[in-house]
Design goal:
Largest sheet: 6 strands, antiparallel
Oligomer: single chain
Structural class: alpha+beta
CATH superfamily of the largest domain: Jelly Rolls
Radius of gyration: 21 Å
Helix content: 40-55%
Order of helices and strands: EEEEEEHEHHEHHHHHHH
CATH architecture of the largest domain: Sandwich
CATH class of the largest domain: Mainly Beta
Strand content: 15-25%
Number of helices: 10
CATH topology of the largest domain: Jelly Rolls
Shape: globular
């Protein structure tokens, strides 16, 4: 399990997934998480989000400070039998007074966890774990729905299919890729693949391709001293004008300014 304070100066995280249940409590600033079917959730101070395990999502952050809790599947399995059949959903703006009170209690559990973790008094893990179990119990009994066998099977099948496509695109991101090539590799009709992929990620295959390229460009800007031109070329960004447009949309700066920012943070 991981629990930490995240301070983000503003970033973008391309579509991804993890096997952990992720909870984020926003203290300052904001962030927007995008799920399948173009569903978006914007998190503001005093609100928290729940991302279910194995759900593909992307994150766009403005400058913010947030508490992040990642609960691995192994821990869920230990205390919540058949947790794969549960989905957690929390309404941040309930109208029912009872629901408002329950939501405030969950928020308090979250902030109490941070106080205990930050101060760390003697035997603090006992208190921290008791709060964690209280939080999980509340999520299961107040904010979960149970899926049918059929729904779980369909969800897992779709997730596995789109993940295979995502892995293929990532492994070939430096090459010239068109939808027809990806579809042919998996034996799909190009129109079917395009509709399916857009439904799952809210992005076209080519949009996702550039998400991967930009992510790797930013990584190399931070970790290497190679020229920006070399980095762009290595990751298939041969359309310079389009790449610069997307980079500014995602990171609100140029690659040169982003590298300067990394160097400034390292000093």
């Amino acid at each position: 399990m991981r629990f930490y304070l995240s301070e983000d100066s503003g970033s973008y995280v391309a579509p991804h997934w993890h096997n952990s249940l992720e909870l984020v409590y926003m203290m300052e600033g904001s962030m927007t998480t995008q799920f399948e079917n173009n569903v978006r959730q914007t998190l503001r101070p005093g609100e928290f989000s729940v991302v279910n395990p194995r759900v593909i999502h992307s994150v766009t952050s403005q400058k913010n400070k947030a508490l992040v809790l990642l609960i691995p599947g192994a821990l869920l399995e230990k205390y919540i039998p058949a947790h794969d059949f549960l989905e957690f959903h929390v309404d941040m703006h309930p109208e029912n007074p009872v629901e408002v009170t329950r939501l405030e209690r969950v928020k308090k559990i979250f902030t109490d966890m941070y106080i205990v973790y930050d101060v760390r008094p003697d035997a603090y893990l006992l208190k921290f774990n008791s709060l964690l179990y209280d939080l999980l119990y509340t999520l299961v009994h107040s904010y979960s729905i149970r899926l049918t066998d059929k729904a779980v099977h369909q969800r897992n099948r779709a997730i596995n299919k789109v993940k295979d496509i995502m892995r293929y695109v990532e492994s070939h991101h430096s090459e010239k890729i068109v939808v027809e090539d990806v579809a042919a590799h998996f034996g799909y009709n190009p129109d079917y693949l395009s509709r399916f992929f857009k439904k799952q990620l809210g992005l076209t295959v080519i949009q996702y391709l550039y998400e991967i390229r930009l992510h790797k460009v930013v990584r190399d800007l931070q970790e290497t001293d190679r020229s920006i031109g070399e980095i762009l070329e290595d990751h298939g960004c041969t359309n310079y004008k389009h790449t610069m447009q997307l980079f500014k949309e995602h990171y609100h700066c140029t690659p040169k300014e982003k590298r300067r920012e990394f160097k400034g943070n390292a000093e």
